Amino acid sequence: MATTPPAKSPSIALARALRRLGLTQGQGKDFRVDGDYNKAGERVRTYALLLTAHADETAAAHADDIERWTEEDGGWSFTVCVRYSDKGRPHCTISNGAVEKIREEPPAPPAAEPAPEPEPEPEPASETAALEEPAQPEEAEEPPAEEPRPSKGSLTITHTRADGTLLEGSRKHDGVYEIVRPIGFRSSRNLGALYIRNSRDREADHWRIRRAVAALREAGWEVTVEIDESKRRSFKEAEAERLERAENRAERHSDYASSAAARSNARHKAALGALDGIEPGQPILVGHHSERRHRRAIERSDNNMRASIAEQERAQHHSDRAETAAQYKARRYDPNRTRRRLEKLNTELRKLERYRDEQLAAGRTADRAERRIEDLREEIAGWEEVVEEARQDGVKLWEPDDFAPGDFALYSGTWYQIKRANPKTLSIAWNLRLTKRVMTLEDATEGGSTWTFGMDYTKIRARCPEAAMLAFLADGTVPGTKSAWKAHLAQPASEVRAALAAKPKTKKRSDPKVPKKVKVDCGWDATEATLTYLDGKGQPHKLHEPVTITAPEGTKFTESVWSRSLLEAVTRRLAADGFQYREGRWSGSPGRGIVHGIEPTEPPAAEPEAAGPDQATLIEPPAEEPPAAAEPPAEETPEAEPEQPVDEPEPAHEEPADEPATAEPEQPVDETAPPAEDPKELRLQREQAAALGWSTGQAEFVIAAAAGRLYLHQFGSLYCRDTPGTAGRLMSVHRLSALQKAGFVTVGAADANRERPVLVTVDGRRAVAVWKRWKPTPVEKNREQECERLRPLLHGVQARRLAEQAAQDEAARKAASAEFREAHKRLMEWEDREDRLWAAWAKVQGIVFRLQRRPAGWVPTEEEIETHGLDAAVVAELREDAVNPQPKPVLPDLKQKPMPELSPLEADGQTPEQLDLFAVA
């Protein structure tokens, strides 16, 4: 038998030892001998590199064998260093010196004359090993395959759907667990074997099993695989085992929590007991003999307190785990949750059935799909029984037949009104911008569109009919589940649907002869615009020719289709043709034109619609022209003002004779001029204009409100709608509060679009007229100053209200002062009386200083009266106080309270919004 010579270098010894462990050598294998080379191609260092996780685990399991074998094979000394990361995987480093890597001495340089290289002599074992170049076995040694390789044992990997994937035949510290753990196997004390998690009731994971078999066989283990997919357990058996494990888990964690709580209490008592004998707040007496004992006591108390807190947290953790396990059955068998689970299982079942049919049609087998279909059908049947049992127990499971359009459904603590009841979901009102306990369809409607959200029936908690909800809201209450259930029983959804079906439905027949929309095209700075009537398809109407609208002489449509004069002309044209705008807004752009829906005007409303725009155009000029007509009056000579209008009426009568067309519109303006205005009124107007104290922005704000152009959005934003029918431009809302408190403007009620118009009051309209006529110099204010309180209109309604409020407050203050003085007088009398009574008691008791109270109900005896010579009046007061004690008077509170804010003034009756002059959209 051939013998293997000892290794001549440490590389050979180490390679032999690793090959004896079953590791393969070479590029891409378990390990390889590699090194560093210089520019000449000569190797400078050699390292033994472990490349795979399998090699690391094998070397870690046989560290002692590697060191022993290298010692026996030539006397080389090696050290195997094993380290573990966070995941438990070992990392091995083999070294033969002080460094972790194996260092090889550089080879000797070649001699000048070619000569055969002498064979190196083996170095002693005590010296640091120097690795030579042998990356492969020497020619003299035997091939590693012929070396005897002992078998480590036999293992069995079994898989059944009832038990899962198990690895049997392994023992502790035999290296098997380290090999299969990265593949997914775990150890279990209950099973007594290694297993793959979540492998029960499922198909075998062949990929993991094949990897485990290959790794174990490479390590020298004999592995047998047994897979039986036919052995399975029923759905009810699996659920019963899950519930049993949950109960055991709850009991176990409950015991853990009790033990941890007991330990926490014991530690807490120990922490308090460690400081017995030491007063709270006692400082450490440095240098005293008690210093060390004091410090040790504080340290023991601190350690015990920290341990008590840690145990308390551990007890809370186990208590939460126990509570979760105790609620496992209730959560898993919740009927609504089960219905959602059934929906997913049915979807998966239909998908697998389609896949199976496709495979069978193609002539392929579908055994795996068949087994999964069988499991799904059994699981679906089991969960359907759970739902049916809940329904028989009286649990209400909401279905599509339980709801009707208009009802309210309770979801997540909020009532949502239902728009549609679909087969699987409810279309409920949805508006993320509002947080309300009752969300109606009106709240979710914006710009003619209603926002909805699909809600699953399994998430609905209650139903309330629309009529009942309106009754609850009228009473100022929001119904709960019990009240809603009573309303649901009183008016089921079937009755609501029957009532809706019984209502006659008016058939809306569209007349093709009537246009449905109108389109306006106009360029920038143009003098002409085109108005086109459109049919229902958006095409030009055949019975209505396009109309050309011309700008007034000397003006242009500077803002293209959004020009105010153009839109007013369009409104007048539509009214003349018998049409009006439908609900909604203009859509489009100046380049493509803007479109708005129209409808025929009703006969009774035809005249107001046609007269509205004309009236608007006639009302606006007088608001701007009076200042020009009122400029001639001088401030110093108000008496001369009536003389000017006396000479003007005569030319006014002569002009219509020559130019009737131009003189007629100017005649109303001349009539409105003050021909004989009272000088007191003029003086009052000048005083009011001077006392306003408005800035330019505040004046523009009130003027825009007087023209009906300001609207407060539902979210607090303020818009100025210069052009009717448009969204308007955004304005700062900081001036509104000061002007509203001063009584110049007020906020009206919300309209159909939930926009609140900003209206002027009587004082506001008077202030606008005064401001435009007398043109006072605006006050320069910044943003902060514009938010400060303003003076109300001089001699106005708000000023009168504030004066009345101040008078009432002054009267109330005087009455409170009189009441306080009366109470203070009673208090002084009571204290004087108490002094007399106490003095009598102190005289009898021999008390000099007033450090004690007189006992209530004390009355001196006859002997004490004679002995101390008490006054008869004082004795009478003592006896009266004993029978009817007088309480100490309490002074009323004189703390000054600020005057409450007055309610906003009502809007002026001449507000354009109330006259409906700008109702374009």
Gist?
The protein is of the alpha+beta class.
Structure report:
The chain is built from 28 helices and 28 strands. The radius of gyration is 50 Å and the shape is extended. Among the domains are: 10-109 and 121-146, no CATH class; 153-232, no CATH class; 239-281 and 289-331; 335-392; 400-501, no CATH class; 517-624, no CATH class; 802-883, no CATH class. The model is unreliable at 97-116, 120-143, 604-674 and 913-921 (pLDDT under 50). Helices cover 43% and strands 15% of the residues. Helix 25 (797-845) packs across helix 27. The protein has 921 residues and is of the alpha+beta class.
Summarize this structure as a short list of keywords or feature phrases.
single chain, 921 residues, alpha+beta, 6-stranded antiparallel beta sheet, 28 strands, 15% strand, disordered C terminus
- Biggest sheet descriptor: 6 strands, mixed
Number of strands: 28
Rounded mean pLDDT score: 80
Enumerate the spans where pLDDT stays under 50 for 5 or more consecutive residues: 97-116, 120-143, 604-674, 913-921
Q: Which term fits the overall shape? A: extended
Share in helix? 40-55%
SS element count, helices: 28
Kindly provide the radius of gyration, computed on alpha-carbon positions and rounded to a whole number of angstroms. Answer: 50 Å
Strand content: 5-15%
Which structural class do the helices and strands define?
alpha+beta
How far apart are the termini? 111 Å
